[in-house]
Specification:
Elements lengths: L1 H25 L15 H6 L3 H35 L5 H11 L5 H24 L4 H9 L4 H30 L2 H6 L7 H9 L5 H27 L2
Helix pairs in contact: 1-10, 3-5, 3-7, 3-9, 5-7, 6-7, 7-10
């Protein structure tokens, strides 16, 4: 039985990572075709000379950074509120923002959309940490004269900080790499890097895209591994 499990696990990993391996190999191919003709780093240098990709990367970085900061802040508070009060809602807030501020499709709507789905990651990670949190520490601080904000900022937050950092890294990774939700709420001059890559890929496979995809995969893969290590510390 163990041998069958190992075999099926190997097939699953092969199915998931074989395309990435092929992508990595052909990102160093000197030919634009799917035939190996020699090793080159030309496509990696051309990525940094493409103005459209640079603009998309800047947009993605801004959106991911703002969404991460806001979602991590409010997600932590939401998780703490759920842990304490068992109830929270953001629907009314977003309805008020769109109705009274008259927002149109663009960077603001993309950022708000990313904040919305990133909050779930923050809440889940922080709640996992809070479930193992010793409430006696808060009670002891209150007995010694601290108020609720002092207890939260000086006792609770430092203890759950590894979970907060893990949630922030997950938020940044998911936000930076998102295409589906962004394509529904993006407007003019708010295209992100995944949207530009998708548009270029529809015209045909380009070595530039292979190189850029490898850079994104390695960068976000590092964030995911780091988030996993931090999340293990919260358990």
């Amino acid at each position: 039985m163990k041998r069958f499990l190992v075999f099926f696990a190997a097939l699953a990993y092969l199915f998931l990572y074989a395309p990435l391996a092929v992508l990595a190999v052909f990102s160093f191919n000197s030919s634009k075709l799917s035939v190996w003709q020699g090793f080159t780093l030309h496509w990696y240098s051309s990525v940094f000379q493409n103005s459209a990709l640079a603009e998309g990367a800047v947009n993605s970085f801004i959106i991911a950074s703002v969404a991460t900061i806001v979602a991590t802040t409010f997600g932590t508070l939401a998780a703490y509120a759920l842990w304490k009060r068992r109830g929270v809602s953001l629907l009314v807030l977003f309805q008020w923002i769109f109705h009274f501020l008259h927002l149109h499709l663009g960077m603001p709507t993309v950022i708000l959309a990313h904040i919305s789905f990133s909050l779930a990651y923050v809440v889940i990670v922080i709640l996992a940490r809070l479930r193992s949190f010793d409430t006696a520490l808060e009670e002891a601080a209150l007995d010694l004269g601290a108020n609720e904000w002092q207890v939260f900022s000086r006792i609770t937050v430092p203890i759950i900080m590894p979970g907060i950092l893990a949630a922030a890294l997950l938020c940044f990774t998911v936000s930076f790499d998102d295409y589906v939700i962004t394509s529904l709420v993006a407007g003019v001059n708010s295209e992100t890097l995944p949207m530009i890559i998708y548009g270029l890929a529809r015209k045909g496979v380009s070595p530039d895209i292979n190189a850029l995809s490898m850079l994104i995969t390695c960068g976000l893969g590092f964030f995911i591994l780091l988030a996993g290590r931090l999340e293990q510390k919260t358990q």
